[in-house]
Amino acid sequence: MDRVSLLLWLSGALFSLGLLGVIVRRNALVMLMCMELMLNGVNLSLVTFSQQRGDAAGAVLVFLVFVVATAEIALAIPIVLLLVRFKRSMDIDRFSDLKG
């Protein structure tokens, strides 16, 4: 198995694991982390394809996606934690509690 196919298999496994976590779990924080795992799988495949083609545009795109994802996580997790802290009756084990 060559390096490109190994990286693509790893990318598919990361994406599948994240998708399984999003489908099965209903905890808000776990779902956010699983979405990030899916994003890492997509980014790994983008880097693999850009390296195979010898083009740096894919690597630059991955860097921009990481910057946006980092900003998203840096804002989403504290918001969820603040909601839980101020509303003691809210349970983040059920994602439907975060509505409205």
Structure in words:
The termini are far apart. The chain is mainly alpha-helical. 7% of the residues are buried. Helix content is 78%, strand content 0%. Helix 1 (3-24) runs antiparallel to helix 2 (28-53).
Record keyword descriptors for this entry.
100 residues; elongated; 3 helices; mainly alpha
Structural class: mainly alpha
Sheet having the most strands: none
- How confident is the prediction overall: mean pLDDT? 81
The total strand number stands at 0
Strand % is under 5%
The poorly predicted ranges are none
Work out the helicity level. over 70%
Written as H for each helix and E for each strand, in order along the chain, the element string is HHH
- Span between termini: 50 Å
What Rg do the Cα atoms give? 17 Å
From the spread of the alpha carbons, the general shape counts as elongated
The number of helical runs is 3
Topology (SSEs and partners):
Layout: H1 3-24, H2 28-53, H3 57-86
Helix pairs in contact: 1-2, 2-3
Short description:
This protein is mainly alpha-helical. The chain has 3 helices and no strands.
